[in-house]
Design brief:
With 455 residues, the chain is of the alpha+beta class. 29% of the residues lie in helices and 23% in strands. Helix 6 crosses helix 7.
Length: 455
């Protein structure tokens, strides 16, 4: 596994060896990580995963198997879509059992549509370059604009151009500009105008289901004095491998002797905690055995303190303290002054754990009553939408990615980046009160039409 951005922008269409072998240290660390993988693929045929990462070239038949899978899925898709017309070819002679009608379903390769997109400058609809823009969900619509005109004639021209390029030993490009004309003059502009009007729709899950809390179990409360403020703070302890700790977590190790040994070793390793993944780089601690002898023991894990809100589950000997899982929804309400005017917006973020508690006690999952001098405004779930009026008077469609406290994490409706990457961008986590008078909750149907939410 690798990060999506790394896979898309760095590794691209390369093997792990081709991608990382230019940096021997990086490639060695990659192989060391793969050696520690666990799972079925590691236990068959002497670690197949590691062998694939060590391959310096693609073996014969490897790519063909992938292509055959794609061809098979394409054929099934053709058969399925053909049911709309009575078959891929819409008429068959009953006596000879031969196809005599019109072919209604065509398949073209991704390479063919990629060349058509470049030839007609369709890639530039979503960016200024000549590459496909995958961080915008509307790139699927741009693909469709290429596929719909990727006729058998164009595919044949592509095949002929590929054959000529191979004969001339010129693999730089297959077409010369203008060899394949646009369907009509102004086609790219029409596609750009239509793509600009697309509103991306998402399915919003409002079910009370999923993990109610995280797997990690925390200690009972430990009240200690914060050395910076001098005030009592409630800490929870938890144990974690050194290799997966952050610098702040290492600085928060409970045992001062262990903390000093880990920090000293970390300093010699250049301040990189992931270096502890190598068992030869672990710090050691002298421990005393029952018989009075002493021995060195590697420090693999350590307890550190953390300020975190937890829930108590279980009773008696089964009592545990856990951090709640994801948030279920956010209830937004306005606070009124004595004249009934809104003074500010507040929000109550309800965890999945709390939503489940309301459910089993036959209480409304969404609480619309937040006390005197308040008025309920709306409820937000992940993947819901709001129309936002900017300071310049522009109205933009925003999708909700994250709910936390008094803040929401949101981004443009067409943004295809991971949620964390979107919400970490500047201005993408506003407080709910800062949006007062600037937002309206809406729904977006399957066709991309916007409707008032009527919460």
């Amino acid at each position: 596994l690798c990060d999506a951005k790394y896979n898309r922008d760095v590794k691209r269409n390369q093997t792990p060896y081709e991608c990382a072998s230019g940096s021997p240290d990086e490639y060695h660390q990659m192989l060391e990580r793969v050696k520690r993988f666990s799972g079925g693929i590691q236990n068959r045929g002497g670690n197949i995963k590691l062998r694939r990462f060590q391959m310096t070239e693609i073996p014969d038949g490897f790519a063909n198997r992938v292509l055959n899978d794609t061809r098979y899925i394409s054929r099934l898709a053709c058969d399925y879509l053909g049911t709309l017309y009575g078959g891929q070819i819409d008429r068959t002679d009953a006596e000879s059992d031969s196809d005599v009608g019109t072919r209604r379903i065509f398949v073209c390769t991704g390479q063919a549509t990629a060349w058509v997109r470049r030839e007609w400058d369709l890639n530039k609809i979503l960016n200024d370059g000549d590459e496909k823009e995958r961080t915008d969900h509307r790139h699927h619509a741009v693909d469709a604009a290429a596929i719909v005109y990727c006729s058998p004639e164009i595919v044949r021209k592509l095949a002929d151009a590929a054959e000529q390029a191979e004969e001339l030993n010129d693999k730089r490009r297959l077409f010369l500009r203008g060899e394949i004309n646009e369907p009509y003059r102004g086609y790219r502009k029409d596609v750009a105008d239509l793509v600009d009007k697309i509103n991306v729709s998402y399915r919003c899950n409002k079910k009370v289901s999923g993990p109610l809390h995280k797997d990690t179990q925390y200690s009972k409360a430990h009240i200690e004095i914060d050395p910076k403020t001098g005030k009592d703070v409630e800490y929870r302890y938890l144990r974690k491998p050194l290799a997966s700790m952050s610098i702040n977590e290492i600085n928060s190790i409970v045992d001062p002797v262990i903390r000093k040994k880990v920090l000293d070793k970390l300093d010699r390793l250049g301040g990189k905690p992931n270096a502890f993944a190598d068992v030869n780089e672990l710090p050691y601690c002298m421990v005393k055995s029952k018989d009075g002898s002493q021995r060195l023991v590697p420090i693999k894990k350590a307890r550190y303190r953390q300020v975190i809100s937890v829930k108590k589950i279980g009773k008696g000997a089964n009592e545990r303290f856990v951090a709640t899982g994801g948030n279920h929804h956010m209830e937004v309400y306005a606070v009124l002054d004595k004249d009934g005017r809104e003074t500010k917006w507040l929000a109550e973020t309800v965890t999945l754990f709390d939503a489940y508690e309301r459910l089993i006690h036959n209480q409304p999952i969404v609480n619309r009553d937040h006390g005197a001098n308040t008025v309920y405004k709306f409820t937000l779930y992940k993947n819901e939408f709001m129309l936002y009026t900017t300071s310049k008077g522009e109205t933009v469609l925003k999708r909700v990615y994250k709910l936390s406290g008094q803040r929401i994490g949101w981004g443009d409706h067409n943004d295809a980046r991971p949620a964390a990457e979107v919400t970490n961008s500047v201005g993408n986590s506003p407080s709910i009160n800062s949006l007062r008078g600037q937002v309206q909750k809406v729904t977006v149907d399957f066709w991309g039409d916007i409707h008032p939410a009527n919460d």
